[in-house]
Amino acid sequence: MQFRIILQRVKRERLAFVSLIYLVILVLVAVFARYIVPFDPEAQDLNQVMIAPNGSHWFGTDELGRDIFTRLLLGSQAAIQAGLIAILIPLFIGVPLGIISGYLGGIVDDLFMRVVDAILSFPAILLALGITGALGVNLWNAMIAIGIIFTPQFARLARGQTLQVRREPYVEAAKISGAGPLWIMYRHILPNIASPIIVQASFSFSLAILVEASLSFLGMGAQSPQISWGGMLHQAYSMIFVNPFMMIFPGAAILLSVLAGNFFGDGLRTAIDPKIKRT
């Protein structure tokens, strides 16, 4: 399906289109954050400790007098990076494995599904904590852990779609014409299962932001001086009754980003398959 047609259908879903605009702005903020922040994120001003939002500090300051708005903008970088890594790892590992498993079937498929079921039996956040602890506590390892825990979901989705597509006439025709399995999987199966994978990627992007914030809040993600929204919440939770703005703004950023990803995913799913809405 052409990109222009999908975009036109997303525009009809107002909430999804607004969410798309928010996500685009969020990505642009993350890319250019270093150039648009009004203050040094690590600059401490003990004369401006935990002040409320005002004309100079739009979101107030934290317990060290650092500008919250500045740190919020820079924290978007960790969120976007986590979202992208959480999509790229499953797309390049989980999807190919799922297609191979679904296409070949037999013992390969049985072994693959047992491994996937075993991984999915663990709660996502606990598995992410374990992987991060094994790799080492830092932001990059946290993002790799997020990508790993999402990989089985993409693999299972790709396998299920492949099982439906591999019996289609065009796949059988490719076999008869002498095409090899790799060519069939790449040329005939992957393009025809791409739509649900793209939708899954949009949902995973927003969920990755939430998981990264959770890991950073628990001290298993971004480490100082790296800035993340979860890390800001970790610093703010003990000050919630003294200066609630320290927690409100990063919490709102996480909430809006997760909601935007979910609403856009719903709209994208409807745009790709309009029958879903009618059903």
Secondary structure topology:
Blueprint: H1 3-12, H2 14-36, H3 68-104, H4 106-120, H5 124-135, H6 139-165, H7 169-176, H8 181-189, H9 194-217, H10 229-236, H11 245-272, H12 275-278
Walkthrough of the structure:
It is a single chain. By secondary structure, the protein is mainly α. It contains twelve helices and no strands. The protein has helices at residues 3-12, 14-36, 68-104, 106-120, 124-135, 139-165, 169-176, 181-189, 194-217, 229-236, 245-272, 275-278. The radius of gyration is 22 Å and the shape is elongated. The model has no long low-confidence stretch (mean pLDDT 84).
Observed structural traits:
12 helices, 73% helix, elongated, mainly alpha, 279 residues
Unreliable stretches:
none
Mean pLDDT: 84
Helical fraction equals over 70%
Largest sheet: none
User: How would you describe the shape?
Assistant: elongated
Number of strands: 0
Structural class determined from secondary elements: mainly alpha
- SSE ordering: HHHHHHHHHHHH
Proportion of residues in extended strands: under 5%
Radius of gyration: 22 Å
Regarding quaternary structure, how should these chains be classified?
single chain
**What is the straight-line distance between the termini?**
21 Å
